[in-house]
Amino acid sequence: MAWTPETSCGFESRKIKYLIPRYTRGRGLEIGCGMEKAYPHFIGVDNGHHFGRGAADIVADACDLSMFADGSMDFVFSSHVLEHMEDMGKALAEWGRVIKPGGYLVLYVPSANLYPKCGEPGANPDHKHDIYPGDIARLITSNVMRDNFDWTQIECEERGEGNEYSIFEVWRKNAIEDAIIGRSYVVMDKDSQPQKKTACVCRFGGFGDMLQASLVFPRLKEQGYHVTVMTTPKGRDIIRHDPHVDDWYILDQDQVPNNELVAFWREQARRFNRFVNLSESIEGTLLALPGRTNHAWPLEVRKKRMNTNYHEWTAELAGVPFKPCRLFYASENELENARTRTGIGDYNQCATFNIMWALSGSSMHKAMPHMDAVIARIMIEMPEARVFLVGDDACRVLEQGWQREERVVCLSGQMSIRDTLALAQQCRCVVGPETGVLNAVGMDDQVHKVIYLSHSSANNLTKHWTNTQALTPEDCPCHPCHLLHYGSEFCTEKTLPLSALDEATIRECRELSPDALREDRFHTGAALCAYNISPAAIYEAVAKVYRNWRRK
User: What structural domains and CATH numbers belong to the chain?
Assistant: First the structure.
């Protein structure tokens, strides 16, 4: 649509804001922000000529960003500003100066093909230039912009549908040495690009959520799609070596405000042949979130309606057939480090029965209160066993007392999640609650699993896992609750009468953990479901794997 007085809303950045998050992560500037910034994390720069200070964080001339050091910004964004500059080349050079190598210049300008030209009726009298497709490329690739850096054009689109009459361009700044080895600028011409069948899978969430989502990637590849994954940096990290992922769309936490995500997703869906949104596909749907309507459903209703297998449900939402598959891909370097740590040469000839124990999950229902008793028995009755304790920094307190045992290796807070999962793949048995560690090896035929179930049922989580013993709590009517817990408000804690403790234990609690003794009861800090999986049941599950290993 060409410009008309009715189509100009005065807030041009609103028309393009849902296409720019991929290029505007981190710290960056919005030049000419006027009355509102496109996103809260942008640093607004405006000269105040039209609106006073408006939304600007800094009042300054767009051609003088001397308050910012060279290469100090991850991006610069401007909407309908460049055409106001007396010297567009000088402005672009100054904007490019402050961008880091690898950062982005994001531009949205009126197209002279769609907007009145300077001097014509309806044209903005402050415009100094008419901009046609290709004009910005000629300026950016001139000597002014190429003295120290090379630029790659990522996006180039003349947008004339709806109420738009503009050109959208994105340029990435590369160090000049990159150009020397052949990465010089390339103008993106959509008509000349090979046509691909594209799919985008969107998944935000924890490590386990991302691993569950990864089962759809190979199915989409089988259907001929070029697969892009939209996730957070943490989400990418867990699946970054997955061979079925072709590209990434990375967003920082809360980069797009939650109340704008639906509009953002709607715009992104137009850019792909297929858009698979798995966000809150499990949490919020099959695991109720506090504050949501289904969180207050009667327990028996939740047990009936939410007892759906997570993997089958994920595949159904993605519109692909479900097939069990490998979920975590370690690099060769990660596997070699894991083999070195475990002392494994030939996995099948290893003389040590290696056990990984994932110490804790994200809430009290994923605690493992009987760990010490079980490990102590393993040390006595399984002479070939070695136990690797893994978790985050907070789990170090759970390792106390085991540092002096040679066959217990305390690793909490010492390894990345990827190194932890690579090590899990080299162990005979992995023990733990419903965490990303167990999800990563769930469908791995080589690794045996012993899992504490808490808010999920076996049908939910382990139906398609191999070599798995799913332990359920005894005398726990609230299991499975199908609720996500962020504390103890909606989770039944296991408490004991003080009569169940000896005097020495009570004295120790009063000295070290006085808050645990309340209302004449001892508060264990563990959920009822976690506590009511007995140490005997856990030990016997591990012993079963051990006995089979010894027979081989």
Answer: 12-192 (3.40.50.150), 198-318 (3.40.50), 332-551 (3.40.50.2000)
